[in-house]
Amino acid sequence: MKPLVRRTFAVIGGLFFAAAAVHYATLLGRGLLSIMSTAPRAPEVSGPVWRKFSDAYGHSSWAGLALAAGVSFVFLTWDRRPNERRRAFAYMAFLAVLLPMSLANYWSGDFFVPRWQQALIDVVLVVLGSTAAIMLSRFRSADVGARVLKAVGLFLLVMESVAVPGIYAILWILNWQKAISSAHSRDFGPGWISAVAALGALVVSVLTYRRANTPSPASSKLIT
Fold this sequence. Notes:
- The chain is mostly helical.
- It has one domain (3-213).
- 80% of the residues lie in helices and 0% in strands.
- It is built from eight helices and no strands.
- It has helices spanning 3-37, 48-78, 85-107, 115-137, 144-176, 182-185, 190-213, 217-223.
- The longest helix is centred in the first third of the chain and has 35 residues, at 3-37.
- The radius of gyration is 19 Å and the shape is globular.
């Protein structure tokens, strides 16, 4: 297959894959959410501050993961990867676990479990997201367009599955340990949290892109 034709199909497939990821996450995420909703509401959860936190989750983070899945599909099918199929399937398997978990976590509004359990859920998401991000960063490509796609996918993945839940996990732990109160928590708006998460994810993405463009010592010797 010619490269232009292959990459055109890759882009079209990525759009369908992102849409399929949204439907998949919605279907399984609602099932997980219904299980979570059977648990009694955590006694220490009260006030609009917690709903404000959940709004940042529900309206951005899980959808960003679906977009990351679409971009990742385009990147992985941009070039032929006959020797990396197992790694690609393993990476997609991590995304398949992350998507419904993220949707259920974000849409729950953090109303159904105590603070320490909510922090634990976020920590699990961070571990899974970090693993997926490392797997994505290890894929290589000689094409500039493919490296840009990887950088975009890595940015979305790190922001939505590592940085954002990681910040909220810290907040939940601090609140659980009574280090900060609900009143002080109001100072941590979703906009600021998202901005900090985006900045951190951008740094990781740019550094990974620059590293991919840096020639190895062996290749430098060959050039000279």
